[in-house]
């Protein structure tokens, strides 16, 4: 892997009050009005309204959460869960947390094509390194409504309803059905991640799942702040009883309940706001729910809870990607395959089957399918349209370097491909673009954007351990810096080239932002001009001249590899980056960690 890199920027990513779930109105009787956009828009509105009614899509599933829980969300308990989510104290390997694989920078999903758990470099984002697991960590947004969890559905509510434990809550051994007394599938599922060796527990601790959980509880009960926080919710803890794992599971699940974001353009359209969607999104939606056949598996009615998944297992013949370095065991004679559901059932007929991925907030994902084989929505859709063409001509060159090795055998998977995809699906180029626009924009709740979710990263956690460093997505950094450029351009007091954001630390909750062993310093210019960037040590001695050149207006960046002008490695410590552009002169603090 290449050295860790990150964009540096300055914002407080502090603890924030969890937002209440919006109380959406139930669907009201629609009023047919004259469409000012013309006959096409009017026809699209009517066709999509009729289709959504036909399949039973209401756009109001989020409003049902308190009723299905039988109570409002407990904000105090959710706050405890949020702190646990980002605290490495719950992982016995001491170097990963839930947030390491389920990051607010990506819809509480993975920043990688295949997850990196233990032995990571303390970064969460594109620069994360370490041995890989077997699959991509799925997004947990909206998973309160999922009747099965994980790519091979190994965690499931047997009633088909995550809020109903009457049929039992099924897990692999040793838990099996023993967690069925818990009130929700997520409460039970929270028992499992701390026991996963390659994700957080590590391979050094001696003991089974129950011993691992006992050790996690020992840690939590030894931290006065956690005892206090749990005591605010559970009277028995306040009276001296220890924190138990039922409480832990409830806290994690409660935080996940707050991560319900289903107010998308499609949902608003279904609730009678016709202007919520563009014509292109509407055309794409009609394809999705009609001719393209997507809804056959990405279901929205019945037990799917409008989550765009039938939560069943299918063979899509996704190219077999495996990493150079892994702490997991891959399948097949070449140890380069993933047998999917067969790993759970032991039934060879279930080989290569994976759960249909829910599609809400799809735009927040960095990659797609169980192993992140595709990294754009466009390529993921193309694979669905012709799995044989896509799989046989797959090139992993767009993946991270350690995932570009020879792909595993694909013909055995193609021999089992789901009948729904056995023949190519023909779409024109404009239809393809409409479908992608619907998936990318029509299913996005903007509350799930990184700039909103990163506010949930706590500045500190009760254990006192450092919180992992979260790299803000580069596109968001560029967008925000570009906004600064625009503001600077109309600022009468600074007409000359001027930076409004240099080395600003918006990536990490602790200021300043450590980097190891390299970093990218981003800046923006309101107009073309000469820029000087120089690194100084804490005593003011010059260490490295990074830039002295003319740059165009807009966002630019320069990397520092942690070396001085002579090429020698600078020691760990505090450094300063000074930028001069016209009359603008600004210095930002950096911390180099070796």
Protein model, in words:
With 594 residues, this protein is an alpha/beta fold. Among the domains are: 69-257, Orthogonal Bundle (Cytochrome Bc1 Complex, Chain D, domain 2), CATH 1.10.760.10; 473-592, Immunoglobulin-like (Sandwich). Helices cover 27% and strands 12% of the residues. It has 19 helices and 16 strands. The chain has helices at 39-55, 65-69, 75-85, 98-101, 185-189, 197-201, 209-221, 224-231, 235-238, 245-257, 265-270, 279-288, 342-345, 377-385, 387-392, 411-414, 429-442, 450-453, 474-489, and strands at residues 7-10, 123-124, 148-149, 155-157, 169-170, 313-314, 354-355, 469-470, 504-505, 514-515, 519-525, 529-537, 542-551, 554-560, 573-581, 584-592. The strands form five sheets. Strands 10-16-15-12-13 form a five-stranded mixed beta sheet, with no helix packed on it. Strands 9-1-11-14 form a four-stranded mixed beta sheet. A hairpin with a 2-residue loop joins strand 15 and strand 16 (584-592). Helix 1 (39-55) packs parallel to helix 12 and helix 3 (75-85) packs across helix 10 (245-257). The chain is globular and about 70 Å long. The protein starts with 6 loop residues before the first strand and ends with a strand. Mean pLDDT is 87; it is low at 1-35 and 487-512.
């Amino acid at each position: 892997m290449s050295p860790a890199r990150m964009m540096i920027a300055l914002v407080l990513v502090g603890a924030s009050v969890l937002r209440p779930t919006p109380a959406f109105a139930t669907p009201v009787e629609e009023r047919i009005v004259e469409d000012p956009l013309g006959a096409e828009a009017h026809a699209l509105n009517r066709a999509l309204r009729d289709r959504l009614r036909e399949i039973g899509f209401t756009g109001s599933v989020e409003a049902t959460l308190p009723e299905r829980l039988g109570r409002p969300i407990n904000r105090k308990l959710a706050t405890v869960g949020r702190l646990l989510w980002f605290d490495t104290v719950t992982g016995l390997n001491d170097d990963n947390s839930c947030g390491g694989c389920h990051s607010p920078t990506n819809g509480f999903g993975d920043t990688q094509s295949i997850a990196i758990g233990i032995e990571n470099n303390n970064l969460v984002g594109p620069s994360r390194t370490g041995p890989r697991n077997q699959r991509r960590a799925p997004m947990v947004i909206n998973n309160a409504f999922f009747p099965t969890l994980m790519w091979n559905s190994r965690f499931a509510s047997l009633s088909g309803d995550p809020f109903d434990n009457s049929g039992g809550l099924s897990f692999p051994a040793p838990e099996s059905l023993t967690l069925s007394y818990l009130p929700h599938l997520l409460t039970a599922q929270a028992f499992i991640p701390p026991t996963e060796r390659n994700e957080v527990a590590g391979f050094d601790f001696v003991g089974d799942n129950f011993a691992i959980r006992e050790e996690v509880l020992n840690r939590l009960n030894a931290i006065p702040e956690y005892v206090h926080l749990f005591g605010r919710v559970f009277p028995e803890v306040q009276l001296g009883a220890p924190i138990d794992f039922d409480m832990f599971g409830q806290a994690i699940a409660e935080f996940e309940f707050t991560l319900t974001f289903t107010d998308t353009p499609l949902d608003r359209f279904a609730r009678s706001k016709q202007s919520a969607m563009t014509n292109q999104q509407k055309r794409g939606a009609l394809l999705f729910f009609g001719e393209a056949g997507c809804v056959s598996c990405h279901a929205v009615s019945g037990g799917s809870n409008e989550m765009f998944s039938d939560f069943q297992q299918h063979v899509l013949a996704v190219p077999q990607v495996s990493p150079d370095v892994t702490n997991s065991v891959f399948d097949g004679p070449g140890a380069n395959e993933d047998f999917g559901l067969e790993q759970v059932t032991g039934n060879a007929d279930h080989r290569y089957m994976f759960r249909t991925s829910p599609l809400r907030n799809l735009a927040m994902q960095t990659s797609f399918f169980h192993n992140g084989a595709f990294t754009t929505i466009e390529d993921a859709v193309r694979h669905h349209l012709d799995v044989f063409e896509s799989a046989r001509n797959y090139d992993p060159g767009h993946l991270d370097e350690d995932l570009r090795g020879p792909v595993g055998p694909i013909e055995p998977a193609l021999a089992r491909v789901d009948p729904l995809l056995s023949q190519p699906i023909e779409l024109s180029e404009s239809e393809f673009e409409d479908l992608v626009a619907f998936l990318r924009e029509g299913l996005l709740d903007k509350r799930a954007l990184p700039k909103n979710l990163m506010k949930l990263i706590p500045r500190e956690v009760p254990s006192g351990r450092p919180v992992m460093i979260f790299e803000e997505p580069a596109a968001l950094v560029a967008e925000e810096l570009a906004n600064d450029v625009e503001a600077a351009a109309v600022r009468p007091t600074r007409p000359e080239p001027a930076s409004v954001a240099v080395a600003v630390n918006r990536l990490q909750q602790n200021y300043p932002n450590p980097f190891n062993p390299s970093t990218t310093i981003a800046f923006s210019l309101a107009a073309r001009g000469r820029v000087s960037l120089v690194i100084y040590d804490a005593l003011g001695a010059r260490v490295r001249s990074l830039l002295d050149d003319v740059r165009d207006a807009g966002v630019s960046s320069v990397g520092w590899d942690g070396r001085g002008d002579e090429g020698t490695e600078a020691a760990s410590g505090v450094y300063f980056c000074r930028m001069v552009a016209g009359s603008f002169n600004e210095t930002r603090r950096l911390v180099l960690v070796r």
